[in-house]
Every structure is written in C-alpha cells, then in structure tokens.
Amino acid sequence: MKILNKVSQCISAGYNNDAAFSYIHKVNHDEIKPVYRDFGHVDDILGSRIHNRNLQNVKPSEVFNFQKDSNNYQHNKVTSLLKLNDINRSANVKNRRTGKYKTLLTESKEEYHSNLTDTKSSDSHKTKKLPNAIIIGVKKCGTRALLEFLRVHPDVRATGPEPHFFDKHYEEGLEWYRQKMPLSNDAQITIEKTPSYFVTKEVARRVLNMSKDVKLIVVVRDPVTRAISDYAQVASKRKDLKPFEAMAFVDNSTTVVDTTWTVIKIGVYSKHMQKWLRYFPLEQFHFVSGENLIANPGEELEKVQQFLGLSTVVTNKNFVFNGSRGFPCIKKNLKSKRVHCLDGTKGRKHPHVNPIAIKRLRDFYRPFNAKFYQMVGKDFHWL
C-alpha cells in the first residue's frame, strides 16, 4: 500500500491532478487500478481536495482507505463522494441551472448520498435487476418524496433519475433498462419511479411484457391541487407563462374547462386507471394518498412496506416536519440528529388562483373522482 500512501500525501499537500498523475506514471500502476477502474478518469480519484468541495472534510488517510479481499477492493464512503463530484461537473457542463438538469443533479445526488449508507457488502455480490416495483405516478403528487423515504429501508435499492424506459426509451431494450437499475443483493428489491408512466397509453402493455408480477404504486392527490402544483413548476421556469386561469379555461372564462390542456388531463385519474386495469389486476396496485404522505408519512410508509413484503423499518419516528417548507424530512439513522430534506423545489409555493376557478375545477373533477374511488376501492375525501 506504499503507493497509495504516497498519492494520499500528494493530495494532502494540495498537489493538483497533473502533479499526482505524474507521480503515478513513475510507479507500478497495478496497485491502484482497482481504484480508478470504476470511474474511468484518474483525475477523478486524484483531484486536489482543495478544489473538490465534496472532499474538503475528508481526512487524507481516508482517500485510499481500501480493504483487499481475494483481489477485490471494497470502496469506502469517499468513492461515492468522488462519484458525486463527477455528477456535479457533468451537470455544470449541461448548465445545471436549467430546470431539467437541476432536477437530474438533485436526483443523482440523493441517490449517491443514500449509497453512502450501503457499503457493508461488496459490489461483487450484487447484480443489476429489473425492478420488482415501479412508482408509475402521478406527477406532482409526491412520487419523489415516496421514493426517497423508501430508500432509507435497507432492503430497498432505488434509481436516481427517472429512467423513462417504457415511455421514451423502449426501443433501447430491456438490457438497457436493467443497466439503469442500481446494484442489489438477493435480499433487496429494486424500485424505480417515472410518474409519466401512469398517463402514457402504451406503458401498461409494455410493463406487462416485462413482468406480469411487478408491483405498481400510484401516488395521487386532489387533482385541483395537483394541477396548480404542476402549473407552479412550469411557471417557475417560464416567466412569460399566462395565469393559471387563462390556461385552465376556454376563452379566458371560468366556466368551460380546457380539457385539452395536459395539466388538466393528468388529473382525470379514472380514465388512466382504466387502461392499467386492462393489463393488471387491482391487487397488484397500491395507492398512496399524497396529502397523507405529507401529513402522516409514517402511516403511508408502513402501508407501502407491507404491500412490498418488507419488514416495517421506516415509521413515524423517522420523520421530522419542516414547518418553513410545509414538508417532512427524514432521519436515515434514528440515533443521529441529521435529517435529509428534499431539494428546495419540493413544497414550492403555489400561485393565487381565483376561488371561482377552483370551485369550477372541483365540479369538473368530482364525477371522475367518484369513479376513481369506486375503481380502486378507496375514498380519498377530495372536495
């Protein structure tokens, strides 16, 4: 391990990538090949801690703290931090300030931060598997929160960015999809979430072709609140967007709902659910109340864990309510005071909407809500 100690000393001294890389070229590479093999770029491993904010609090001795076991190397927490640094740089190249890449960056960070707690078993004993469960919807109902809360469970492995396989990348094939999944062992289940699946016509049939036993989770909330939340997200990226009322109603009135607007169509849950029930029996679905996921997350998580056949690990004790944002944060370790909160876009403030417009939308959705309650056997008590 002499070479690793020397490289660690280079980094400790503040040498830049080129200086450390030059040193490596003077010695035998064999001892450090397992280190940089996982990243593809030596400078990702040997980057100066001075210029890498993710590693500034890491001790030099930790940088190459690897355990050798039958010629396999187990990486420690620094590995995930270095990967996170690579994500930061990639996002900067693609202008992470834009909405799309900011979301990608956030989701990737959450995945890697979660992986820091899962370093006990060697990756050599893990494989990438097609998902056992999919959160298929619904957009702006709490799907990201649910996935991050489930990720705390030791028997759950979850994707970071949404794969969008069944609606956008189906032609890539199942092997492409499998490679998007996280590593997991035989005792763990794999979960992905892509909310647009619920409303995309071809997806249910395609999911069935992958697996007739996959478990499907649907997070729903009051469709009026969902529509306003959806609009708020778009408006945060487009300052020239028309007012909500002008988008939701025909001819700028508050009487005729514009049913061609995607934001409105998504909330007609019964219509989308009909398509899914043509391919899967009701018992393969679990429905999560988006409202209760915020108000009582522990209760909803206990139901989801039961549905997935998991032991009840995530409970009310794991949650701390963030009053300033009106959103729950989660404790990954009950013995720690540290909590994990979703990024700042969650719990975004909604714009003011004319009460007359809200009433008209509630009248519009009411019969569809009633039909949805009947289809799934659950009353969500939306007005």
What does this structure look like?
This protein has helices at residues 2-12, 17-25, 33-37, 42-46, 60-63, 77-93, 99-115, 143-151, 165-168, 174-179, 203-210, 223-235, 244-248, 262-266, 269-277, 290-295, 297-307, 355-376, and strands spanning 67-69, 72-74, 127-128, 133-137, 156-158, 183-184, 189-193, 215-220, 285-289, 319-322, 327-330. The chain is α/β, with parallel strands linked by helices and 383 residues long. A five-stranded parallel sheet has the order 5-7-4-8-9. A two-stranded antiparallel ribbon has the order 1-2. Strands 3-6 form a two-stranded antiparallel ribbon. The chain is globular, with a radius of gyration of 24 Å. 31% of the residues are buried. Residues 1-8 and 10-98 have low confidence and may be disordered.
Structure characteristics:
383 residues; alpha/beta; 5-stranded parallel β-sheet; two-stranded antiparallel ribbon; 11 strands; globular
Give a quick rundown of the structure:
InterPro entries: NST/OST, P-loop_NTPase, Sulfotransferase_dom. The protein has 383 residues and is of the alpha/beta class. The chain is built from 18 helices and 11 strands.
Q: In terms of structural class, how would the helical and strand content be classed?
A: alpha/beta
Mean pLDDT, to the nearest integer, reads: 78
Q: Biggest β-sheet, characterized?
A: 5 strands, parallel
**Beta strand %:** 5-15%
User: Care to count the β-strands?
Assistant: 11
- The coarse overall form would be globular
First-last Cα distance: 66 Å
- Uncertain spans, ≥5 residues at pLDDT below 50? 1-8, 10-98
Order of helices and strands: HHHHHEEHHEEHEHHEEHEHHHHEHHEEH
Largest sheet strand order: 5-7-4-8-9
Report the total helices.
18
Radius of gyration, in angstroms, nearest whole number: 24 Å
| Helical amount | 40-55%
